[in-house]
Amino acid sequence: MAPGPPPAAHPRGLVPPAAAPSPRGPCPRARRAGGSVGSDRHDGAGGRLPRRRGRSGGSDARGKGRKYRAGAEVPARWRRWRRRGTGLAAAPRPALALGVDPGGGRLSSCPGPNCPGPPGVQALLRKLQSLVEVPGRLRRWAAPGGEPARALRCHARARAVLRHYRHLPSFRAIEDESHAIMADLAQRLRARLRCGGTYPGLTECVEMLLQLEEPPEELCQEFLSHAGTRLEAELAALEAELPVADPSAAATPPPASDILDFVDRGSSAFVGNLCLLAASYRSLFEGRPGAGDGRLEAFAASLTARYFQLLERRLGLERGLGDTSLLVRALDRFHRRLRALLELLPAAGAEAGAALVARAARERVDRYLRALQTFFLGCLGDVRQALAAPRPPGKEGPGLPDLLATLASSILGQLKAVLAYVQLFTAKDVAFASLPYFKGEFCVEAVREGLVVAFVRWLCRTARGFADGPAERGAPAAPPALLLLLARLCLDYEATTISYILTLTDEQFPPQDTGPVVTPGPALCAEARGAAQRLLDHYVQVQGAAVAQMLRKSVETRDWLGTVEPRNVRAVMKRVVEDITAIDVQVGQLFEEGVRRAQSSDSSRRAFSVYSSSRAPGRYAPSYTPSAPMDTHLLSNIQKLFSERIDIFSPVEFNKVSVLTGIIKISLKTLLECVRLRTLGRFGLQQVQVDGHYLQLYLWRFAADERVVQGLLDEVAASAAHRCLDPVPMEHSVVELICERG
Amino acid sequence: MEDDAPVIYGLEFQARALTPQTAETDAIRFLVGTQSLRYDNQIHIIDFDDENNIINKNVLLHQVGEIWHISTSPADKGVLATCYNKTSDSKVMTCAAVWRMPKELESGSHESPDDSSSNTQTLELLCHLDNTAHGNMACVMWEPMGDGKKIISLADNNILLWDLQESSAKAVLSSSAALEGKGQLKFTSGRWSPHHNCTQIATANDTTVRGWDTRSMRQIYCIENAHGQLVRDLDFNPNKQYYLASCGDDCKVKFWDTRNVTEPVKTLEEHSHWVWNVRYNHSHDQLILTGSSDSRVILSNMVSISSEPFGHMVDDDELSDQEDQHQEEKIKEPLQDSVIATYEEHEDSVYAVEWSSADPWLFASLSYDGRLVINRVPRALKYHILL
C-alpha cells in the first residue's frame, strides 16, 4: 500500500516540523494545491505554512477554472441548510464526516485556538474544502510519476460523498472530474500492467485497478497472463541452460551447471515466484466473482508441468553416475519447494512432482545397475588380460585364486558402494524419503529387484553366455581358465555371496510385509548353480576337445601301416600328459580334490605298474589269438556286460577329479574312434600299445575311477588289434622300458 | 505292445555299412557290409518279416575287402555299390565298385537260415569306379528316384559324377570337381538332394558343409563351421527343399535352411558323444533318427521345422458333427519338438542308422560290434501323426 504517515499523526492539524519536509506528507500538498497548480517543487517550503492560510484556499481554486468557482459557493449553501435545521442537512453530515474524516483528519478535528467560529462549522468547512480539493489532489497524485496509491485512497474516501451529492451540479462536476482522472489513471495502470514489471509492482497495480472497480475477471486474466510471461521467461532462462536436443550430435555438451544449481535456480526463481504469485492472486481475487473457478490452479498446473518437463530434461542430461548426493540434495530441495507450493496450490501437480522424484531415483538406480554391469565387464577384461599376459619364464603370474579373489571382492565392494549411494535416497533427512514410494516400492522393486537381483541374474547370464555363446561360429572363444574362474565365481555366489548380498540389501532397504513378491534367494542360487554347472561342463568340453583334437590329428595323419618299430612314446602323448597335468593344476587352484574310488589304494606309480603289468597279458589276449571271429566278439561283449556305460560328454561334479575324468574320457574316446578308422601294420599296433601304456601310467591318477581310464585304453588296444593286419604285440617288458625311458 | 520290442540280429564281424534296399517298396530289407581285415567280408541281406517279427538273412561274400560304405540303386533291386578297403603290402586304398547280387536274392529268399551260411553266394562285379587318380572313396551316392544310371562318388577332395552304361557294366566319368584350399581337404560324406530335379548335392569336409550344382559342378552354398568339430553326416529333408540336417563331433545335430548359412534353424544336443548319422524319415520329415558313438540311437520329433502343419487342419464342420469334445482338444494340441525315444540296445558305437524304404515306421541301426537292431516308431506317435 502507499506509504505515508497515518492521519492520526497530526492530531491538531499542525504539521510537525519533522514530518513537513516529507514529500509524501498529505498535509502540505493539500494546502498548496491551489497555489502551485500541481507543482511539487515547493513541497518543503509549503509545509511550513500555517494552517490558516490553507483555509482561504477557496480563492486559489479560482485559478483552476470555472467549475470550481461554482464549487466555491458550496459552503454558503451548507450554512443555509444548517440554519434552517432541516433534516436534509443533518443527514449528509455524518456522511461527510465518514467520508472525509479518516483521511483528512486534520480538517474535521481542528478545534485549535486559531480556528475561528464554532468547531462544528469549522470542521464542515474543512471537509467541504477538502472535497473541493479532491480533483486537484487526484490530478497531482495520479499524474505519471505521482503517487497513484494516494490518489486511490483519496478517491476512495471522496467517492461515497461525491456519489451521494451527485445531484448537486458542483459535486457532480467534482465527481466527473475525479472519474476522468481516475479513468485516466486506470488506463495508465493497465498500460503498466501490460508492460510488466516486478511482482510487487504488478500486484500493486492490480490492486489499484481493483480499487478502481475494474472488472476482476478481466483483471485476473490479465494478471495471470502477465505473471505468466514473467514465469515463462524464467522457465526460458532455465531452458536456455539445457543444450538443444540434437539427435544428430553424437554427444551433447555437458550442462554448464550442476543439477543442484539448476534446481536451486529453478526453485528460487520459478517456484518462488509461482508461490508469490499464488499468494498475491489469492489475496487480490479471493472472493471476487469470476476469479475462483480454478483458473489459478489450471494456470499453475500448466506452468509446473513445463517446469517438470525442464527438470526432467535436465535430469536426463545427468550422465554417468555423477554425484548422487548432489542429485539427492537437488531432488530434496525440489521436493521441499514443491511441497511449499502445494500448500498454496494443492492442484499444481503433487502427483507429478512425486512421480518425477521417483522416476529420477529409479533412473539413477538403473544407471547404477548399468554401471555395475560395466564394472563387471571391466573386471572380466582385466582378468582376461591377466590370463593372456605373457609371463616371463620362471615367474608365476597371479594365480587363479588371486584373480578370483580380486574379482569377487571388487564386485562385492562395488555393489556395496552402490547400495550405499542408493541409500541416500532413503536417508532420514531427505524429505521425499517419507513418500510411500520410497518406503515400499523403491526398496523392493527398484533396489532389491531392479538392482541387486537384476545384477546377480545378469551376472549369471553373462557368465553362462561364455559357455552358450556361438563360440564356434566366429566370436573369439573365452579362454578355458576364464570359464573355470567364472564357474567358481558362480558356485561361490550360490553358496554364500547371494544370501549375503540379499541380507545386506534387506537390512539397508527393509522390505514391507505387504510389499510385492520378491525373488526368493534360493531361486537366484539355483540360477547361479545352473550357470556354474554349464560353465564347468563347457570347460571340460573345451579342454577335452583341445586334447582330443591333438590326438585325432596325430592318428589321422600318421601312416600306421608303414611305420617303423616304436622306440619312443610319440611326442603327442607326452604333450597330452603335459596338458592334462597343466589342466589338473589349473582346476586344483579353484576346486577341491573330490573323491576317488576307494579301490585305488595302490596309488603309487610303482605299485600301479606292477598292477597293470599283471593285468596286461590278459588285456590283449583276444586279439593275439587268431581264434574264430565269434570268440573276439563274445569276449568284448562279455567285457562290456560288466562295465557300466560311460557317457563321454556328461555333466561333471564340482571337483577336480570329476573335471579331469571328464576331460580324459573325451580324449581317450576320441583316440578309440580314430584308431577304428585306420588300418594298422604290426608296428602301428605296437606304437598304439606303447602310447596306451604311457597314457595309463600317467593319467590314471587324475581320474575318479582308474577303471574308466583302463577300460577306455583297453578298448583302444582291442580296436587297434582289430584294425591291425599283422597283430603281433610288443613284449610287455619292452613296452614298459620304452615308457619308463620317457 | 509286444511287437514294439526291438528285434536284434548279430553279425560275426564288425560293421559300419548299412543301407535299405532303396528300390524295394514292399518288403523290409536292409543290407549290411562287414569289416574284417583277416576274413572274407560279407554283405548280409536282412529281411524282416513284420508280421511274424522274424529276421531272415542271406549272406553274400564280398571278397575284395572290408566295406566302409554301401548304397543301393534306386531303380534296380539287385544293384548296389560299395566302398571298400583294398590292402596291398603297406598301402591301403579305398575303392568303389558297383555290384549285382544273385537274382534269387533280390526279392529275398525263404531259405532256412541254417543252410544259408553253407552255400554263401558271391556278388557279381558290374564295374569299378576307377579312382586311381582321385584318391580314397568316401561314399557313393545314387541319383535319388533316378533310373539308376547316375552316381556320384566322393574321393578325397574330388566329386566324381559317373554315368553307368551298358547295364551298369561300364562307369564313365562324366564330370568332376575338386575342392581346392589349404591343407589336405577330404570329403567325409555327402548326400544327393531329391529336390531341384536332383541337380544338387551337399558334401561335408572337416567342419564345413557345401552345396554343389551337379550340372555346373560348382559350389552353390557353403556353411562354414557348421559344427564345432568334424561334420560326420548330412541328410536332406525329403519334403522341404531347402532344409538340411547335419551332425558331427560336437555331439550336435543341426538343421539348416540353406538360404541362410549363418545360423542353424535348430540345434539338437541330445547325444553324449559324436553323432555319426542323421536321417530324415522319408515320408514324415518331423521324425529324425540319429546314431552316435555314445552307443545310442535317438528318435526325435522336430515338428516345428517339418513340412507337417502345426497341429491338425481339420475342417471345423467335420469336427462339430463329432460329439467327443475331449478328443478334439487332444488332437488339436500341437506336439512340441521333443525326443521321442532313446534306444539303448547297442553296446558299441552306432555308426549307421537307416529308415526302411518300405515301411516308414521302421528303422534299423548298426553298431560297430556287428549288432543290427530293428525298431519301430512308437505306436502312440504313429497314430498321432496318421490320425
TrEMBL record, chain A:
The main location class comes to: Golgi
InterPro entries documented for this protein: Vps51
Disordered: annotated span: 1-73
Q: Where in the cell is it found?
A: Golgi apparatus, trans-Golgi network; Recycling endosome
Q: Does the keyword Metal-binding apply?
A: no
Question: Which keywords label this protein?
Answer: Endosome, Golgi apparatus, Lipid transport, Protein transport, Transport
Q: Which Gene Ontology terms of cellular component type are present?
A: cytosol; EARP complex; GARP complex; membrane
Assembly mode: Component of the Golgi-associated retrograde protein (GARP) complex. Component of the endosome-associated retrograde protein (EARP) complex.
Q: Which family, according to the similarity comment?
A: Belongs to the VPS51 family.
Q: What is this protein called?
A: Vacuolar protein sorting-associated protein 51 homolog
Q: Which organism is it from?
A: Calidris pygmaea (Spoon-billed sandpiper)
Automatic annotation (TrEMBL), chain B:
User: Could you say which protein family the record assigns here?
Assistant: Belongs to the WD repeat EIPR1 family.
Task: Identify the keywords attached in UniProt to this record, alphabetized.
Answer: Repeat, WD repeat
Sequence ranges assigned to domain EIPR1-like beta-propeller in this UniProt record: 7-299
Q: Which SMART domains match?
A: WD40
Q: Identify one Pfam family in the record.
A: WD40
Its source organism is Galbula dea
Q: Entry's Gene3D superfamilies? A: YVTN repeat-like/Quinoprotein amine dehydrogenase
Q: Where are the WD repeats?
A: 224-260
Q: From the Swiss-Prot or TrEMBL record, give the protein name.
A: EIPR1 protein
Record-annotated membrane-spanning stretches? none
A Gene Ontology annotation in the biological process aspect, one of them, is: regulation of transport
